[in-house]
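New to this. Explain the following:
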Amino acid sequence: MRNQDTGSDSCAGIGSQLNDRMEIIVTGAAGFVGQALAAALLSDPQVSSLILTDVVEPALPRQHEASKVETRCVKADLTSQETCQSLFTPSLSAVYLLHGLMSGASEANLDLGLKVNIDSMRLVLDVLRSVNPGVKVVFPSSCAVFGPSDAVVTETTMPLPGSSYGAQKHITEVLLNDYSRKGLLDGRILRLPTIIVRPGTPTGAASSFCSGIIREPLKGERSVLPVAPDFEIWVCSTRTLIKNLIHAREIAAENFPSSSRIVNLPGMTVTSRQMLEVLKDVAGEETVRLVEERRDPVIEKLVYSWPARFDTSLAERLGFSPDGTLKQILSEYIEDYGEGLKIQRA
């Protein structure tokens, strides 16, 4: 159906408007994280209205069939001021800014990365501070804002991005933090670990292989490990991420440190070898043999610029949830997305 207000293509979900509860918008909602977050919000009793938007029309998660949340899916270009003014309105209670160009793609196309990851974000934030001052804005940032470090990283560690993606994320962090300092918006800036295991197909993220070396072999398909087996990376599960994205909205503004809205989210440090060992435990030796080690210097340059150890004591004090074990993460992936997998038990 055509949405007359936004001038964008949209689909309408079922449900009734509950005026005393929250209206939420999720950008980047056609992506994996956006869809997982939308599914959780459709079951959230605090939410009455949900707008899902992306450059393609987002799908309605299957959870909408049993939900009373009024849901709209909108195809929209968030680099357009007219579109942003039609979507980001005074009625919104919270905003999740999940749209963006991923790490590998941002490195390959600087101008597009600047347009999507900086210009679009500033446009959205400026519209919000004008029409809905003080609204909660949850912005998922990345550990890519830092440079390589052998030390444990805290929220006060100096960012020195080793990629265009990290630089673009850091710029938006600084802007939203300043708008929050001035009381223009109520930002919650979350530095996300790498999420494993992402379903679907490989993405433009430099870390896409972290999911690929598990996801593809479980489907009986070959995959490439483009880094050394001892490569370390900070990761967390989809379930934990979604739980923490929702929790970020619920934290009272006064509970954040006075000078910063930035939080390193909980995760765990793992190596490529450890991921493959867990895959072997769950699916057997034959499955692991589908992974070929073939080093890629372009990917290595990006992912080796990310730190792998974080101090998450602030996140713990704010009530964010820790993650489980690697084996639990893999088991959750199979439970949530495992239809059609070819798992040969060890």
About this structure: The first strand starts at residue 2 and ends at 3.
